[in-house]
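Quick one, tokens below:
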């Protein structure tokens, strides 16, 4: 029986206040409104607490991480985007807790026996603690549009309709993305060796810890030294990560400009190839010899597929592929194989994240927000055109892990499917997309020919 998800929600009902997180953040950033900050803390306290408690395993450390998370919010509130801060806060909480666990002290015996039930495949207490931590560590790495439904529905107790209202999404989008997030989480946990059912246990945070976080955030009480140091460390790591992204984008842009200049210099008078019309009838005259009769479907200038049975990749088919063709990291694997498997998992996840954004991110209204509409399409096109290179990265690692012809073929098929997906993207460079898909099909055809 496949793993299933059990949601044990906290006794507290979802908040009934109507002021959006975006409005509360605006008030706090502009006037340092203490009431707005307090409402943000209370609204998302349970989600932040669960991330801290599950990753660290004990209440004392979790309280420090909880306070540091909201202290980070006081410093970075202006950078939080979207209508709901819950996803951002959960990610900061999980990363803060991981940082404290690494720097301060290892996990010790947890104190929440009654909130997470043992499963037949979890074994002893330490393994259960590691499993609970892994759930939140993996969730913190999800794209925002998958993390938010989990935080709102599984951790904060909102119904799908309530979450849809908070996020401004259709109810169907909330349900669909929540289902996809569950599938992604199962797959990621399986790669780490966890095969037990995932337990989302929303445990209410003690009121004294909430009050302390509010007091520290509003300046009513001084932050403990450990919390201050932890906050500074998290802020530094966030700044470093941002600088790395900016550097990579700058290098990529300069590289693209350089390639364009070189091409223009070498091909100043590059001709334009006219595309001949494609005929619908791809069957030769029955009285002629097929070996010597030109195929009208392959007329000069057209680029049909030699593998029409391979559909374009989708988020669902990629998830199915991961579950079927990517092995978990086994205890008995040698170090090199463990490292290669981890690298492959990350490469495929980058491919999945780009595909998820291309397929599922809601398009802004061009009439009311033309800048956001333009930025959305720029990012969508950039991610789309990056799919072939992400696929090549994953394929290279997979070929080292799976050297047999039989195990390599699914990756060649996946490469063709990715190429077809890029061709379907509106405004994508069509010639480049067709060339990449053609190369993938040639690689697959050569592989099949050797059999």
């Amino acid at each position: 029986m496949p793993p299933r998800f059990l949601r044990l929600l906290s006794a507290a009902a979802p908040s009934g206040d109507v002021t959006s997180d975006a409005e509360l953040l605006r008030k706090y950033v502009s006037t340092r409104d203490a009431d707005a900050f307090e409402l943000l803390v209370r609204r998302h306290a349970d989600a932040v607490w669960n991330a801290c408690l599950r990753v660290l395993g004990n209440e004392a450390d979790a309280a420090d991480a909880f306070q540091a998370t909201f202290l980070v919010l006081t410093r970075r509130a202006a950078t939080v985007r979207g209508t709901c801060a819950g996803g951002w806060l959960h990610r900061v909480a999980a990363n803060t807790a991981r940082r404290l666990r690494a720097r301060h002290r290892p996990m010790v015996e947890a104190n929440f026996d009654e909130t997470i039930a043992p499963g037949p495949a979890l074994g002893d207490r330490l393994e259960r603690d590691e499993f609970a931590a892994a759930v939140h560590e993996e969730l913190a790495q999800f794209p925002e549009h998958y993390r938010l439904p989990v935080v709102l529905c599984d951790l904060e107790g909102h119904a799908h309709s309530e979450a849809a209202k908070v996020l401004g999404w259709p109810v169907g989008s909330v349900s669909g993305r929540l289902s996809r997030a569950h599938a992604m989480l199962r797959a990621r946990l399986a790669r780490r060796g966890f095969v037990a059912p995932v337990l989302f246990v929303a445990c209410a945070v003690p009121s004294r810890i909430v009050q302390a976080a509010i007091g520290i955030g509003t300046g009513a009480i001084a932050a403990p030294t450990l919390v201050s140091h932890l906050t500074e460390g998290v802020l530094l790591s966030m700044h470093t990560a941002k600088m790395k992204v900016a550097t990579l984008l700058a290098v990529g842009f300069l590289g693209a400009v350089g390639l364009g200049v070189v091409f223009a210099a070498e091909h100043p008078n590059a001709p334009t190839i006219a595309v001949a019309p494609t005929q619908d009838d791809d069957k030769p005259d029955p009285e002629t010899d097929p070996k010597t009769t030109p195929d009208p479907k392959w007329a000069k200038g057209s680029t049909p597929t030699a593998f029409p049975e391979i559909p374009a990749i989708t988020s669902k088919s990629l998830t199915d592929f991961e579950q079927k063709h990517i092995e978990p990291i086994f205890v008995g694997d040698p170090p090199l194989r463990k490292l290669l498997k981890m690298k492959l998992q990350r490469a495929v996840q980058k491919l999945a994240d780009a595909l998820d954004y291309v397929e599922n991110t809601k398009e802004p209204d061009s009439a009311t927000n033309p800048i956001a509409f333009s930025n959305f399409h720029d990012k969508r096109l950039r991610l789309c055109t990056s799919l072939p290179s992400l696929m090549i990265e994953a394929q290279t690692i997979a070929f080292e892990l799976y050297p047999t012809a039989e195990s390599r073929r699914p990756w060649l098929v996946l490469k063709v499917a990715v190429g077809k997906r890029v061709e379907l993207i509106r405004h994508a460079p069509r010639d480049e997309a067709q060339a990449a898909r053609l190369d993938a099909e040639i690689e697959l055809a050569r592989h099949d020919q050797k059999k």
